[in-house]
Amino acid sequence: MSGAHGPLPADLAVGAFSEHPPWLVDLDDLPWRAGLDLVRDATRREVPTLTRRRLLPPWRRMLRVASVLGRALAAWYVLDRRRGRARSRSGLAHRLRTAFAVLGPTYIKLGQILSSGEGIFPAELVGEFKQLRDRVPPEPFAVVRAIVESDLGRPLGEVFSDFSRDPVAAASIAQVHGAVLRTGERVVVKVQRPSVSTLVRNDLAVMSYLAPFLVGRIPVAVLANPPALIELFAETIVEELDFRLEAENMLDIAGVLAASDQHAIVVPRPHPRLVTPRVLVMERLDGFAWDDVDGMKGAGISTEAVLRAGVVSFLEGAMLYGVFHGDLHGGNLFVQPDGRVALLDFGITGRLSEPRRVAFLRLVMGGTMNDVRSQVQALRDLGALPPDADVELVVAELGLDEPPEDVGQMTAEELTAELRDLTKKLLAYGARMPKELMLFVKDIVFLDGAVATFAPDVDLLGEVAGIAAYFASRHGGRIASEIGIDPRDQEVDLDSVRSSLGVSSDTTRLSYREIQSRRAEMRAKFHRDRSAGPEGP
Known about the structure:
Blueprint: E1 2-3, E2 6-7, H1 36-51, H2 59-80, H3 85-103, H4 105-115, H5 123-129, H6 141-152, H7 156-159, E3 160-163, E4 169-170, E5 174-181, E6 186-192, H8 196-214, H9 226-239, H10 243-259, E7 265-266, E8 270-275, E9 279-283, E10 288-289, H11 293-298, H12 303-321, E11 323-325, E12 333-335, E13 341-343, E14 349-351, H13 354-368, H14 372-382, H15 391-397, H16 412-428, H17 435-454, H18 460-483, H19 494-501, H20 512-532
Parallel strand pairs: 7-13
Antiparallel strand pairs: 1-2, 3-5, 4-5, 5-6, 6-9, 8-9, 10-12, 11-14, 12-13
């Protein structure tokens, strides 16, 4: 295998890596991978124990959490609650964000996850919690040095010729430093914050104890189930506490990209030796920040092509391989000068068992054909509905086989009542949000938002049809053998796409800019309706 500048690295056969390697990845010579299957299984089995309702939680931490959250809720109740819905909701979101920042890593991480859930969680909450992404104070360098030296078993100077005292980024669980190895390679070093593992486990015990008391009591959580949310959060955060699992996630996603012949995405190589539960040394990649669209276009990069490649590779990973990056946001992506997207931070990764992957494939294919029964069956098989749920009864009682209502013609009260009624029915069926489905929806929401800056004028109907044609031609045979639906013989139901976007069936072209305009009109109408109604939270 060779490229424009000579032979390509041999490890590109096993992973989507850069073409200028600081070292080569040999899957048979990575000592830190030993026993990781057992570690991952043990981590998953730990979640039910961490989230069970204890008779008494860790009382010191409980008092601290109750004190901070109690003051926040009391201030909202006294100062914000009766000042109209908008002030009430924004005031509560602000006070919760401030409280989460005070409570430290676990709560900051929860806030960061909520902040990337635009369209899933209330806008006020998302907007406030976005501030937790880049406002986390770093640990002192002496603490960082101690952790690195302890985990690597050597003085810092024996491993690195240079190690930046100031972090490149500081997040809730860890911070990242630029460094140079003694052998000359430029790297980044991810270092876990001290005692965070113990703190997270104690916090999960407290959250699980408090969550049942919050059901129906916080207005911004009307559509959320706090105990289920904590369980989802536990499944997500516990795996982040061992950086060996993250390094393996990097290799697995790089392998999926290589297997699907995706050359538009790049994963940094983890170091063959310098990976421990609390320290992860990896290849350093550089490029344009995700929001530097002007810089990309100035360098001749097609931002439309960048986004299209990201969507296709993300769907391929989830639908055909059952592995995908679970935390897409602007801080975890940048674009290299050659237009390839560099993926970062693999602590949160979606992993579907084979039965669930097939169910997920059926869910997506059912969506492209507007087959609601197939979608409900797939949701049941994914664990979003109980295994004994009657598909036909669910479809009938939720009215899924009826023509969709035009939400643009509904008042705010009508829409709120509709959502509340739907939520009650789903909860009555025992519906829940499986971790992988939540991560997938969260990523889709992020990619949807990226269209606004990367490709605001592209024809979305044409893009949907084009992506469907790609999967039909490239993977049609495999899809047909796995779920009995051959996309080569099926047409994408663009009418259902138009309906979901609130446009007429005779619309032939639709840009994201036009959708944004329509959404802005709907939001303005919604707020006008809400303002005209009675005040309250």
